[in-house]
Amino acid sequence: MIDFKPVFLVVGIFLATLAILMCIPAAVDKFAGHHDWQVFLASAAVTFLTGLMLIFGNRTSVRKVSMRQAFLLTTATWISAAAFGALPFAFSEMHMSYTDAVFESMSGLTTTGATVIVGLDNAPPGILLWRALLHGLGGIGIVVMAVAVLPMLRIGGMQIFRMESSDKSDKVLPKTAQMASAILIVYLVLIVLTVFALWGAGMSLFDSICHGIAAVSTGGFSTKDASIGHYDNALFDGILVVSMISGALPLTWYVRVAQRGKKALWLDSQVVTFFQVLLVCIGVMAAWLWVVKGMTPPHAFRMAAFNVTSIITDTGFVNTDYGLWGDFAVASFIFYTFIGGCTGSTAGSIKIFRWQILFRAVSRQLSWMFQPHRVMDLRYNGQSYTDDVVSSVISFVAIYLISFALMTLVVSLLGVDFLTSASAVSAALAASGPGLGPIVGPAGTYQPLPDSVTWVLTFAMLFGRLELFTILVLFTPQFWRD
Question: How far is the C-alpha of 198 from the C-alpha of 237, rounded, in Å?
Fold first, then answer.
């Protein structure tokens, strides 16, 4: 029998933390003279009391968490956080249904950036800040999950990253607590640098804070309906491109560089591959916009660099409606959503390291066709890995693509056109924000979709962000057997 006490205890602690965060937008609304501060305080009170009940009702000394408890804990934490994080949306002057409120909350926590809100330009400041704070909380939560939880659960090849903590000579920091502290410091420093850069470039301090958090967490929530396109400012675009890239790199990579200096800059092969893929995709799209669409080279590069970076890093900011660029651009952006950033970053989707493992497996199989007795050493970042990592990655990619196909079919059956269905599902699974087409495209929102589709996409965001198997395993009979 699974001991649920540690699970409920940690969920309670997380809800209490969420309640404390709600007090920040409450203070902002109070200072701005907006009556929604009462909504935030009431939501904080309900969330905090629920958290306290879970904490005091399940007091226990947690010395070790089993694998089954880890699966339950991860899923329960995200679901409960989204459910309670939706309260300010549901009861604010935005007058959102609870379905839309949960979607918005889940989108914030999973750093997806898809929104059902119309009229962001005139929305209460507390709501805008709350969306950003959900991004910030979800972003650091995702990194901690990738570094501490997923390697233990051996999901999607993540067990390969356990080598870093098992080899004393290659530890990022000697203790897990120190590593978590270092990651949090890096995360906060990146956000602060982005905020001050945007503020110094002329953006208001409030907008700088919201966009800075959204950029580093690769979330994509903006304070404007037109997203970054509202400003039409090349300097803002450039700052955010750098910030989105910084969030898509492993946060542990920054710690290594700080410890070892310049020689550690290019030691992580996924970082090198990420930059190579990003530069190629930007270059191809910029060339297309210049040659085919007739843009000037500087403008073509600016548009390509911003929007391609936003989609590959799964951020979701837009500075123009790239759905109007033509069929090549539309097809390219759907493909980009499947790439993702680096493992250990705030970015979503399949991620660079899995593509590396997958292509190496294909290369090995091709070599064996001509040299069947050849022995090939499997190595990643200079360390050997076994075939179970390859099998895990192949399984992850296969389930990811099957899930994309099935959910697209379900959304289509619910009455949504194919382009909207496919792009919305791919954006939800990859946590990349806007889809394509007139409804969920860069110039639209998810608000017109029926509630049934909204719930499917809400599940897709959670499913993709928790790396598929974390949720799938809960539906297997073996999981619940003693």
Answer: 10
